[in-house]
Amino acid sequence: xxxxxxxxxxxxxxxxxxxxxxAVIGHTPRYKTYYICGNCTYQWDPEEQKSTE
Length: 53
Ligand SMILES: [Zn+2]
Prior knowledge:
The chain has no helices and three strands.
């Protein structure tokens, strides 16, 4: 699980923004995803950071 870049908390949630489709793979749309910190409510885009996914 990633950490909040602002407060360092690991209480983060991954959220899909279903109003923003970034790609369609086969017939499955891929939505824009972002994280919300459960501690300080900071939101950020995981694609701006290095991911191991
Ligand atoms: Zn935070």
